[in-house]
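REQUEST
  id: r-88c1
  op: predict_structure
  target: FAD dependent oxidoreductase domain-containing protein
  payload:
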Amino acid sequence: MATTVIVGSGIIGIATAYYLCEHQPGWSIHVVDSSTELFASASGYAGGFIAKDWFPPELASLGALSFEEHERLAEKYDGHEKWAYAKSVTVNYEPPRRKANGPGGEDWLREGGSRVDLVAEKRDVEDGNSPPWLRRVKGDAVSVVDNAEGTAVLDPIRLCQFLLGRCRAAGVRFHHPAVVLNVGPDCHDELSHVRIGFTDCSSETEIPATRIYARPNGDIWLGGVNSAIPLPPLATAAKPMRGPLEKLKATARQLIKSEGELEVVRTGLCFRPVTQRGTPYVTRVEDVDLRQGYRTRKGADGGVFVAAGHGPWGISLSLGTGKVMAEMMQGRELSADISGLGYLP
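RESPONSE
  id: r-88c1
  status: 200
  body:
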């Protein structure tokens, strides 16, 4: 039995370990992370919005699989209670005299724009059908984007903790803080020669459109106001900036009904690596692209694999990516078509 080492214990790494241990002993799987605290960035603080078919053709199959896996695990393990999973009616809110200055077209994922602008069918809703917590004002507009058929929400940190618990129960070994290799944006070591293209994980693009997700327990998540800042060496060093955070709080006071001051439960800063092409790499690295004559064992006996660059869709695509990665690493038939998610050396 081959030993598997996963570098990075975010939601995609932990999901890969979860699916791997369904078909191999947990003790043969090692997960390595450089931070003392797991899930300290996007995997623990993201909004948790998931979609079934909001993706370009290259991601359509993986997106559908992942959505199905989110629903399947929630039904099997009471995800509604354990990680606040719920189908979600998705609406687009336009304040009065809104200026459409965000990116559109096929660049929406790469540039951080809203996929809502590309949804073909939207319909206006009456005031009585608006989210009950939304503060309506004269001249605004609310349109339905998805009627809870293809979108859902969950709490990422609780899903990660559930997957972590399942992995530990199966015997998966976790090593943190620990560093196997530096595979960050400035790496100059053993993996710096693996030519998988450029992944911009050093900064975030300004995103003017605020995202708001209501969870079943009454918590309301807001995000989307950020700016280009350097990527810290460790996830635990990512701290919210005062200016954007205050701006987000002001937005919350404008949009959310409340008889008193809103309570801030948690704050966080998320880094979301995106590729230049706008879609992630989910692939096996061929031996020809490994320098110094490195050769890996064929099939399920070895290999170097990459799953990175999911951008704003890491939570949504996490389970599908983990499942397909496990299948690919174990030499099993793939549950989704990822032929468009390889790389150009």
